[in-house]
Amino acid sequence: MSKVTDHIAAAKGETIFSIEIIPPAKGSNSITELVKDIEPMMEFNPPFIDVTYHREEYIIKDMPDGGKKEVRTRKRPGTIGICSAIMHKFDVDPVPHVLCGGMTKEDTEDLLFDLDYLGIDNVMALRGDIAKPFNVFKAKKGGHQYASELITHIKDMNEGKYLYEEASFDSHPDFCIGGAAYPEKHYEAASFDIDFKFLKKKVDAGLDYIVTQMFFNNEKYISFVKKCRAEGINIPIIPGLKVLATKRQLEILPELFFCDMPADLRNAVQGAKDNKAAREIGVEWCINQCKELKNFGVPALHFYTMSKSNTTLAVAREIF
After folding, report:
1. Which residues make Cβ contacts (< 8 Å) with residue 105, sequence separation at least 6?
2. Within its chain, how far is the Cα of 38 from the centroid?
3. Chain-centre distance for alpha carbon 29
4. Per the confidence metrics, is the pTM higher than 0.85?
5. CA neighbor of 246 nearest in space, from 167, 311, 170
6. At residue 300, what are phi and psi to the nearest 5 degrees?
7. Number of H helices, E strands in the chain
8. Do the beta carbons of residue 245 and residue 279 sit within 8 Å?
9. Which of 170, 254, 285, 306 would suit a FRET pair with 218, their CA atoms being 20 to 30 Å apart?
10. Cis preceding-peptide flag for 133 (omega within 30 of 0)
11. Between vectors from CA 129 to CA 263 and to CA 313, what angle results, nearest 5°?
12. The CA-based dihedral angle spanning residues 151, 84, 101, 204, taken in that order and rounded to the nearest 10 degrees
C-alpha cells in the first residue's frame, strides 16, 4: 500500500478527496451498514480513509453498600478490523487513529506491530479526548501524556528502535505519521500561540502531514496555513470539513468541536423552516468552502462523515 504523502505527491497539485469514518457501536450486527455508506463514496476515488479509535470511558455506578464505583466502558472498538476490511474490499489505504489515552507504551507498540503486519503504512497520532466523565486528560499509567511523545515513539520504531531494546533492528515499520491541528486553537490551550508551540513540537517530533479540526470559516484555515509556512512548518496541511446537516448541529458542533459558526451561516440555518432546509444550506455552504479551498491549492478535502455518506456525496458531486 502507499503513504498519504505519496498520494499527495502523485496528485501533482490536484486536490484529493478523503473521508473519516467511525466504527459501528459495540454490539451492532456487523460493519455491513458502514460498508454501504462507504461504497457510494468510492465514486470519487479516495486514496485513503481515516478510521477513528475511541478510548475507554467511565460511568459511575451506585453500589449496594451506598458507595460509588467507576466502571470502564468502550463504545466503539474495531478500528483495526475495519482498517483491514477497507484495505481488502476497496483497495484503499486505511489510516487508523492511534491514541495516547487508554494505552500503555507497550500497548502502543504492540498495536503498531499489528498494523505493520497487516501492511498498513499510515497512522494518525493523537492524544485523544478526555475520558468521560472526567474534566482533565488522564494518561494510563505507563502511557504517553502528549501526542508529541507518541509521535516520537512511532518515529523511533520507524528507525528500528523499540521499547527496552538497546540495539536497532534491520527490519522495522515505516509509518507515515499524521497529526491534528486546530486553526481556531485547541480548547484546552490557554492561547493560540501556546497551542501553536505544541503543534511545532509535534512537527519537530516527526509529523509527515497535518489534518485540521473542522472549521466553517475558510479565513481561519488560510490564516493558519500562512502562519505555519512563516514559522517553517512546510508539511501538507489538509483541511477537515463537516457538512452541517441539521438545525441542532448549529449548537452541537461548536459545543463538541469548539469551532466558530460564521454569522451568515448561523442566521441562515436559524431561519430554515426544517432540517431539510437546514441541510440544503449546509451543503451549499460546504460547496462554497470547498471551491475556495481548492482555489487556494489544498492537498486534499477531508470530510468528517460521521459514517453517513449523503451530505458528503452531495458536496463531492459538485466539487470533484
Report:
1. 142, 143, 144, 153, 163
2. 17
3. 25
4. yes
5. 311
6. -155, 160
7. 11, 10
8. yes
9. 306
10. yes
11. 55
12. 10
Residue 113: helix, strand or coil by DSSP? helix
Q: Residue type for 93, please? A: D
Q: How far is CA 197 from CA 69, 117, 185, 232, in A?
A: 38, 34, 11, 12
Centre a 10 Å sphere on the Cβ of residue 320 and count the other Cβ atoms it contains: 16
3-state secondary structure 54-99: CCCEEEEEECCCCCEEEEEECCCCCHHHHHHHHHHHHCCEEEEEEE
Instruction: Work out the burial of residue 82: count CB atoms within 10 Å of its CB; fewer than 13 is exposed, 13-18 middle, 19 or more buried.
Output: buried
The three three-digit cell numbers of residue 278, written as one number? 437546514
pLDDT tens for each residue of the chain, 320 residues long:
899 999 999 999 999 999 999 988 776 656 888 899 999 999 999 999 999 997 666 556 666 777 766 665 666 678 999 999 999 999 999 999 999 988 999 999 999 999 999 999 999 999 987 666 666 777 788 999 999 999 999 999 999 889 887 656 677 899 999 999 999 988 888 898 999 999 999 999 999 999 999 999 999 999 999 999 999 999 999 999 999 999 999 999 988 888 999 999 999 999 999 999 999 999 999 999 999 999 999 999 999 998 889 999 999 999 99
